[in-house]
Write a structure and sequence with these properties.
The chain has 631 residues and is an alpha+beta fold. It has 18 helices and 30 strands. The strands form ten sheets. It has a six-stranded antiparallel β-sheet, covered by helices on one side. Strands 1-25-19-26 form a four-stranded mixed β-sheet. Strands 5-16-15-14 form a four-stranded mixed β-sheet.
């Protein structure tokens, strides 16, 4: 369902920036250890539970009736209509081939699904229980609910789970194949029992939940199809929605499966309330906003600060037919920025990368372009307890000191890197540009007739790719400052499909992305920063990080056995990545800014880690009638 597979489905999600939409990582950041019930004495080492969590007890007991952040009495029916960016030519979100539809995750389910009011807890969905041996957890076993069905009425079996894993691990994109690499084997023990066996040195804490949250689809669907190929033929899955109709690249309608097997599950109570989910696609951000104004769709999450501050004054807003709201978002803000392709020869020296970063004047942009709506990002775990600050703590040093010879010296001698403040009243901050010029001089890129050149006479030149006209006003001032340094930078406009292809093939200089790694990262982040993913076609290691020290810290994150150990390891990684200058950090906001026609309602108890418009909101016929918006 959408709740459990949001990250898998949303390859392109709007980041917190004022124009355009960049790719976001689809990393499953997940969890294990429960307060489990133990089986009988003959199997006293086997823990069995209705849920799993990394560290500590589960909030919900085995007999819970519904999640606290839903309205258990929410009415069913109506349609939620929203928009998608770019285009699509595939309904297979699990392979590199094709441009998949952004919201296709509403069709799929996993063995377990997340509770969005806990940092790291998952509960049985397709699986009614999970078992594993303590304390080593060399395997994990799931008992599939006997009532679980695919949308055609066929039974979900252990063989389907095995097949799904085999396809994802061998033919899936790197975001699946890399995290699953430490699974030794998968066995269908019975028709409804499946066991994942882990390699002896696997980091089982997070790997256990990587497999628990793996999307499951029907083996029978691929009897005469190649999983590795993109396709507009909807995959046979078990989720609450199926495809009703579509115009490839333009729009798609998902319809609630009237025979959805999981409708009465406590986890699903108050969720999946809409009869239809309608997505209208736009290749341009401005035209998408105009589409909302014109009534082409009814729900919009706003990322463009100038529109939020100035444009929501059209008649429907003034007449009280459209609600405007800012809803708190307590998820880590993540890492949004200009990511630099370290595979390019000109970007090998970190001094060059740091100098490029100094040319971005956030304070001027925030004041002049963003109406003061944003804060500066400096961490890959911005706005969370996992963000590195100041000098390394003793716990961090215990991890960093053995790596001292292969890490930047500043990791030990200077506070965690924070972008320098710039003059908000002047685009060209003289102090920062002067410091950038010194870095370039030291790196061997000297000014020759106003152009930065190396000892071979090569000019320091690069492109910043963008698929959004709305981002021009952000990139153009950045380029102006780069030119003041003697750097020949230019913006290259591409469409959404081209941008994806260039990033998949690593054929770019600088691009914009937003990564969100969650509160309990695990093996999933290896696909973003691990050396094994640096050259894997289509991987999320967009900058090409290939560093033995980073790999060692990834091992420490995966192997953490307590929240304190995890925090120290993540802060250490954050500190090192920032010292490597693989990006130019941009900015973030801590709220969901939403506008919608007054035909929708949402639970009073908002989930802290999810907006949930497709999952927990509902069509409110009384509001619709009051405002003349009945469907």
């Amino acid at each position: 369902m959408l709740n459990s597979l949001t990250n898998l489905a949303m390859r392109y999600q709007p980041p917190n920036f004022p124009g355009g939409i960049a790719a976001a990582i689809a990393t499953t950041l997940t969890l294990l250890t429960t307060a489990p019930a133990l089986a009988d004495e003959a199997e006293s080492r086997i823990a069995t539970s209705h849920g799993i969590s990394h560290f500590g007890d589960l909030k919900y007991s085995a007999d819970f009736t519904h999640l606290d952040y839903v309205n258990p009495d929410a009415p069913k029916g109506g349609a939620l209509s929203t928009w998608g960016y770019g285009t699509f030519d595939s309904l297979n979100p699990f392979v590199v081939m094709g441009e998949y539809e952004n919201f296709v995750g509403v069709m799929f389910e996993s063995l377990m699904a997340r509770a969005y009011d806990e940092a790291d807890s998952y509960y049985g969905l397709l699986a009614e229980s999970v078992s594993y041996p303590e304390p080593n957890r060399e395997w994990i076993e799931f008992k599939i609910r006997p009532e679980a069905r695919f949308s055609d009425g066929s039974i979900v079996t252990a063989e389907d789970v095995v097949f799904s894993f085999e396809m994802l691990s061998t033919k899936g994109s790197p975001r699946f194949s890399i995290p699953y690499r430490d699974v030794e084997s998968v066995e269908a023990l019975e028709m409804n029992r499946v066991r994942f066996n882990f390699k002896p040195d696997a980091s089982v804490r997070s790997l256990s939940v990587e497999v628990a949250t793996m999307p499951v689809f029907a083996k029978s669907h691929f009897s005469d199809r190649d999983f590795a190929q993109s396709s507009l033929d909807p995959m046979l899955a078990s989720g609450p929605y199926v495809v009703e109709s579509m115009k490839p690249g333009h729009s798609i309608i998902y319809r609630k499966n009237q025979d959805y097997w999981g409708e009465s599950l406590p986890y699903n109570t108050g969720q999946n309330n809409f009869e239809r989910i309608v997505i209208e696609y736009y290749v341009d951000y401005t035209s998408a906003f105009e589409g909302f104004k014109g009534g082409d769709y009814d729900f919009r999450k706003e990322y463009y600060s100038v529109l939020w501050k100035t444009a929501y004054v059209f008649p429907e807003v003034q007449d009280g037919l459209i609600a405007i709201d800012e809803i708190p978002d307590l998820t880590p803000a993540g890492a949004q920025g200009f990511f630099i392709n370290l595979r390019r020869p000109h970007f090998q020296d970190p001094r060059v990368r740091e100098a490029i970063g100094k040319a971005f004047n956030f304070e001027w942009s925030n004041q002049t372009l963003f109406h003061g709506s944003y804060r500066r990002t400096d961490s890959f775990w911005e706005n969370s307890t996992l963000q590195a600050e100041g000098l390394p703590t003793p716990a961090e040093l215990a991890l960093l000191k053995p790596l001292e010879d292969i890490l930047p010296a500043v990791v030990f001698t200077e506070p965690a890197f924070v972008p320098p403040l710039s003059n908000p009243d002047r685009l060209a901050d003289r102090d920062n540009l002067a410091a950038a010029a010194r870095l370039l001089d030291d790196a061997g890129w000297t000014l020759v007739d106003g152009v930065r050149r190396n000892s071979d006479g090569e000019a320091l030149a690069f492109e910043i790719i963008s698929d959004s006209p709305g981002f021009d006003r952000i990139i153009t001032p950045f380029i102006e400052n780069l030119e003041r340094l003697g750097i020949q930078a230019q913006m290259r406009r591409v469409d959404n499909a081209q941008k994806t292809r260039l990033e998949d093939e690593f054929d770019f200089d600088i691009t914009t992305r937003r990564y969100s790694f969650g509160l309990t990262p695990g093996v999933g982040i290896r696909s973003a920063f691990g050396s094994a993913s640096a050259s894997s076609f289509g991987s999320y290691n967009i900058s090409g990080v290939d560093n033995a020290g980073v790999d060692a810290l990834l091992d420490a994150i995966e192997g953490a056995t307590s929240r304190a150990e995890l925090t120290a390891a993540v802060k250490s990684l954050d500190r090192v990545l920032r010292a490597l200058h693989i990006w130019v950090p941009q900015y973030y906001g801590a709220v969901h800014r939403v506008a919608f026609r007054k035909k929708y309602s949402r639970p009073e108890n908002q989930a802290p880690y999810q907006l949930g418009e497709m999952a927990t909101w509902w069509y409110d016929s009384e509001k619709a009638e009051k405002h003349g918006l009945l469907e």
